[in-house]
Amino acid sequence: HLNGKVALVTGSTSGIGLGIACALAEAGAELILNGFGEVDRAKDKVARYGARPGYHDADLSDPTQIEAMMQYAESEYGGVDILVNNAGIQHVAPVEQFPVEKWNAILAINLSSVFHTSRLALPGMKERNWGRIINIASVHGLVASKEKSAYVAAKHAVVGLTKVIALENAQTNITCNALCPGWVLTPLVQQQIDQRIASGIAPEVARDTLLGEKQPSGEFVTPEQLGALTLFLCSDAASQVRGAAWNMDGGWVAQ
Ligand code: NAD
Question: What is the extent of the structural domain holding 147?
């Protein structure tokens, strides 16, 4: 149902972003990928579901590079119809030991990039009178955990920004919503499991206690499931879902 739509998914070379990109490609959208690392592997994977995707290497901590990425989308694809703000990083440390440069990087990548891509995508969406902005926040946009000050602050702010963009466009065919996943087994979470293993905990125990502390289902959420929810939010059936912070979290925030 997304034939003729152009989708930009930030941070789509890995994890959740790559899963969402595949789902959008399978539904017929033209994809623009972004992110670091195994770019060709990500392009090949998305190409198995649809047309070969475009790619821009913008570092989302830098507004100038974000502007270049949005210009690329405009000149090569005629603009962005579906914007998935997914790129994000994590750092775990208590506030008083939290490195200032990590704080600044997390705020820039996890929060400010959402403002920049959105402000640059909205004029084109308004011209075409259709758009979907889907921000990958987190359960940490709704509740906190210790040692994640920058991440929790940025994700709560993303939920707030989502509501403002939803309201400003409430009388258009442009919707803006946030997804709030619980634990998804991606490199970002594997790093946190590895930290526990490094402190002497057995791998299965590290995984089970990580899930057990927060996620009542005891199961990870998958990128494919988040892809399916993204497709729903892009559908006509979701045209009145506006400014939501939709958790998919194995029961995390129900507690
Ligand atoms: P991941 O590490 O697998 O992927 C992160 C992606 O962002 C990669 O493509 C990476 O290259 C890209 N990226 C990182 N820094 C970037 C930068 N400066 N510029 C451009 N791209 C950059 O992580 P993930 O778990 O798939 O996380 C994706 C999003 O989902 C993040 O916003 C994260 O906060 C959120 N999230 C993850 C979980 C989880 O359990 N994994 C839960 C809730 C929310």
Answer: 6-182+222-249
User: Cα(235)–Cα(132) distance, rounded to whole angstroms?
Assistant: 9
At 184-238, the pLDDT tens digits run 999 989 998 999 999 999 999 999 999 999 999 999 999 999 999 999 999 999 9
Local structure of 20: helix, strand or coil: helix
| 24, 9 Cβ separation under 8 angstroms | yes
- CATH number of the domain residue 121 falls in: 3.40.50.720
Please tell me whether residues 55 and 82 are part of one structural domain: yes
- Helix locations, 90-202, DSSP H: 100-106, 113-128, 149-168, 187-198
Please state, in angstroms and rounded to a whole number, the distance separating the CA atoms of residues 175 and 240: 8
* Gap from CA of 87 to ligand 1 centroid (Å): 4
Distance 88 CA to ligand 1 centre (A): 4
Output the pTM of the full model: 0.98
